[in-house]
Amino acid sequence: MSAMDLPKRIAILGFPGAQSLDFVGPLEVFAVAERLSPGRYEPLVVAPSREPFVTSSGLAVTPTRVIKSVKPLDTLIVAGGLGVHAAGRDEQLLSAVAGAAGRARRVASVCTGAFLLARAGLLDGRRVTTHWASADELARRHPDLRVEPDRIYVRDGDLWSSAGVTAGMDLALALVEDDHGAAAALEVARWLVLYARRPGGQAQFSVALAAQAAERVPLREVQEWVRANPAGDCSVEALAARACMSPRNFSRAFRDEVGLTPAVWVEAARVDLAKGLLETTASATDSIARSCGFGSVETMRRAFRRRVGVSPGEYRSRFRASLRDAA
Questions:
Q1: For 178-195, how does the pLDDT look when each residue is reduced to its tens digit (9 = 90+)?
Q2: DSSP conformational letter for 166
Q3: Residues with catalytic annotation?
């Protein structure tokens, strides 16, 4: 059997304080891919040592291998989590990560695992993403990186990175598709009851999730009103008046609770609504643009490029292609 016929060895790095789903999620994707078609993958949980480590949620994990001993290696995936910064101060671990990356065909990070790759000197000048709550910090600590905070995952050549937690499974499905095609990734997604593909560079967190962060009733009511009336007056002044607040106080409170400015959130809400109409109706694009408050197809197209990574037309065609594949 040639080296090309051997299962691809996938080493997923965990460490004390790692986020459990950051490595268990991708591990399940590759494990299911292997069960469905034996001989494709050999997924391993690796760690700095053979000692069990405890994740941020209290899960005790016994690693399969020590990271520095994994040879040969196809893919290195580095998890994130609360312990990532302590891991980034471990010079021996950083050296082992750099060594494993040098042996691997491709390298990936999940969530804040990007910080560990950056500390190991593996991200200089590269395009990356990370958990939305850590994107600003990553860009501040490593200004040479091109951080794309609204992406589920980013591929920059042989470097892949994903957003937070469950996005690691999206990343793993993309890696399976890159290795074995869309049909293989779709079959894995079916077994795991996941989206087969989130087209383009979909925003990391949905507008619905962002809405949950708003604790004040007036802010929640404004968000509900926007979703029900996307073509209405959604200026800061109009929304502030609905919340019975001054525009300045409204903007500050909204950003503090939601994590986005009102204008960015409104655009995201309109994009989400437009995506639903593109997925479920045959309405013309200009009609959808007007009903969702964009005013023109060009305005909607620019918003889609910013938040989804593809045009509305491309989004609709890709979504329908996924439905045809699943039929």
A1: 999 988 988 998 899 886
A2: T
A3: 111
